[in-house]
TrEMBL record:
GO terms for molecular function: metal ion binding. Disulfide bonds join 78-82. Residues 40-205 form the Thioredoxin domain. Cu cation binds at residues 78, 82, 166. Belongs to the SCO1/2 family. Keywords: Copper, Disulfide bond, Metal-binding, Signal. SUPFAM superfamilies: Thioredoxin-like. This is SCO family protein. InterPro entries: SCO1/SenC, Thioredoxin-like_sf, Thioredoxin_domain. It comes from the Bacteria.
Length: 207
């Protein structure tokens, strides 16, 4: 009997080793954009949102993300960080446009109390002709920020000239593919353009 069991064990061992060897060569899902990622990507960043544009019209993410888009959360009263990052995004968009690739910019206000549709719309258009400014109710803005894991908190103080603490990331979103990666505050415009370029080339090759 012991010889029988020993034989069965040997067969089981061989089968297990064969299965492990097969698994080692089993085709696995690959990330076509792995070589492009600079930030820490996460599948659950980004998603649907409903906000208000410069004309007071309710729009969704699919209405505004119709091309490769750089999305930024900030506010128009922001003293330095927001104008700098949006200017860098605009410069990156211009670099890519010279190469024949149109990239849109979306600025989502985290200060709906002061940033009316007109105010945020004027702010965005002054940054770049393809920049879209969005605002909304407190609930709409909070939901959009939560989808992108964007932090913001209104500071206590002067009710008119208060500041808003917020994260300062620019999110790259591609239509039909969603969130790709983010660029940190102060990332040079050429580096942003290079990042977008890499994702667009990888997307074209994967089709």
């Amino acid at each position: 009997m012991s010889k029988v069991f020993a034989g069965m064990a040997a067969v089981a061992t061989v089968a297990a080793l064969g299965a492990m060897a097969g698994y080692a060569f089993w085709p696995r899902p690959t990330d076509a954009f792995a070589q492009c990622r600079a930030g820490q990507s996460a599948a659950d960043i980004g998603g649907p949102f409903t906000l208000v544009d410069k004309d007071g019209k309710t729009v969704t993410d699919t209405d505004v993300i119709t091309a490769p888009t750089l999305v930024y959360f900030g506010y128009t009263f922001c003293p330095d960080v927001c104008p700098l990052d949006m200017s860098l995004n605009a410069e990156a968009a211009d670099i890519l446009e010279e190469e024949g690739q149109l990239v849109n910019l979306v600025f989502i206000s985290v200060d709906p109390g002061r940033d009316t549709p007109k105010v945020v719309g004027d702010f965005a258009s002054n940054i770049h002709p393809r920049a879209i400014g969005l605002t909304g109710s407190d609930e709409q803005v909070a939901a959009a920020a939560k989808a992108y894991r964007a932090y913001f908190k209104k500071q206590d103080g002067d009710p008119e000239f208060y500041l808003v603490d917020h994260s300062a990331f620019t999110y790259l979103v591609l239509p039909g593919l969603g969130f790709m990666d983010f660029f940190k505050h102060d990332t040079p415009a050429e580096q942003r353009a290079q990042g977008v370029r890499c994702f667009l080339e990888a997307a074209a090759q994967s089709n």
